[in-house]
Structures are given as C-alpha cells and as structure tokens.
Amino acid sequence: MTNIVEFHNVRKSYGALEVLKGVSLSVPKGSVVALIGRSGSGKSTALRCVNGLESIQGGELNVCGRKLHEAGVKLRELRKDVGIVFQSYNLFPHKTVEENITLSPRLTRGLSKAQAREVAQRVLAQVGLSEKAASYPEQLSGGQQQRVAIARSLAMEPELMLFDEVTSALDPELTGEVLKTIEALAKGGMTMILVTHEMAFAKRVANQIVFMHQGVVWETGDGRMLDAPQTPELRNFIGNGL
Ligand code: ADP
Ligand code: MG
C-alpha cells in the first residue's frame, strides 16, 4: 500500500526546546489517522511539519512523494497537495463564500472564472452548503463557516487533508455538523490526519489512532486501543478527559 505520509524518527525543536523527539508514523493512502494527546505533546507541530509550515531538524519526512528532510522542496507545490484546516477559519469577511473558495484556485491553479465557479459548486455540495455560495461569512453560523473553510481547502484538490482541532472553537451544538462533513470526506476516500479531542469521533472514523506524549508516539492502534489502553499515560489521558 502506498503511504502518503511517512515520519521516520522525526525531530523538531523550537530553539532549545525539542518538541518532536523521534516521531515515526505512516499514513496509507485513503486512510484516516487521528492524533490525540495532551496539550503541548506536539500534535500541532507534527501537522505543521507535514505541510512545510515548520522545518525538521532530524529524521526523515516523506509527504506526497516529496522528501521534506532534503533541501529544495518547493513548498508552494507541496501545499497544493496538502490542505490544512485550523481551529480559526479565517475567511475573508468582505468576500462571498464563493469568492473565498475561488480565490486560491484561480491564483495558483490558473483556473478561469467559470472553471473556478464549477469547482466551488462541487466543493460546496461536498460540505452541504450549495445554497450559501452568495452569502457572506457573517451570515453563517460558526459551523457553516468552518465547513466553508474545509470547502476552500478541497477546492485545491489536495491529496491529503490535515485538520487541527477544527471543532474546538465551536459551540457544542455546531460541532456535529463539522464532524459529519469530515466523516463524509473520509468515507469518500480522502487521506487525512486529524488532531481531535473528540474521542468517540476518532474511534468511529480513524483507521489508526496515535497517542502522542512528550514528543513521541507513545501508543498507537485502531479504535479499540481507547477501550484497552496499554500504558498508564494513555489510561490517564482518557480517564481524566483533557
Ligand atoms: P499540541 O498541539 O499537542 O498542544 P504543540 O505542537 O502546539 O502541541 O506544542 C508543543 C510544544 O511546542 C509546546 O511546549 C509549545 O509551547 C511549543 N511550541 C509550539 N509552537 C511553538 C513556536 N512557534 N515557538 C516556540 N515553541 C512552540
Ligand atoms: Mg495543538
């Protein structure tokens, strides 16, 4: 099976602070990997390394056929293949939903206006917001805005999607619709890595769960590992919630 992402003993420091201390993990094409762990365990840093927002200091990191541990990787090319969605959705407030979505594809993929509109319609349908193309962000709920942010990423036709706690800023009643959108993408075969605190969701959707602790992969397995943790650290993390 092809791996879209491979970490081999990856090390990453911010100055003197080593945050990733030899992380190894693989993401096969079409699979969903959920990263869980305490705040500060290095989950966001790991994701940011995958799309080149952070450089690594040791080990090897292969993403979509590129060797990020070697010099000369074209980050702009990499980021066409790797979409990332954060907790804050950062839509342009003075642009419509459709304009927010078509901006990047027009600039970086050279699509005509008509082609970009077609793409926008398709990705809005994927996130269940076809009727909102002409709306402005402030006219949407937080959950809908986050789904637009996901659609905006999909419009680049990425090979891999990264989600970093995309529901953490949302009211609980809006979380479900965003998770449903992500679950539908997963069912459609999208390869993804997601950082989440939603354990039931991770268990249901992820093929592999990775518990990060103190900058390494402490424990990994399928959803069953959440019912039968092998280490006191994972047991403690699950038991105490977050
Ligand atoms: P998580 O997402 O699991 O909460 P992070 O990857 O955000 O963890 O952070 C891991 C550690 O790295 C934390 O101690 C955090 O303070 C530190 N850190 C994260 N980003 C930076 C940065 N840009 N500069 C310095 N330290 C950082
Ligand atoms: Mg984080």
Automatic annotation (TrEMBL):
GO terms for molecular function: ABC-type amino acid transporter activity; ATP binding; ATP hydrolysis activity. SMART domains: AAA. One of its GO terms (cellular component) is plasma membrane. The keyword Cell inner membrane does not apply. InterPro entries: AAA+_ATPase (IPR003593), ABC_ATPase_HisP-typ (IPR030679), ABC_transporter-like_ATP-bd (IPR003439), ABC_transporter-like_CS (IPR017871), MetN_ABC_transporter-like (IPR050086), P-loop_NTPase (IPR027417). CDD domains: ABC_HisP_GlnQ. SUPFAM superfamilies: P-loop containing nucleoside triphosphate hydrolases (SSF52540). Residues 5-238 form the ABC transporter domain. The keyword Transport applies. Coiled coil: none annotated. It is found in: Cell membrane. Belongs to the ABC transporter superfamily. This is Amino acid ABC transporter ATP-binding protein (PAAT family).
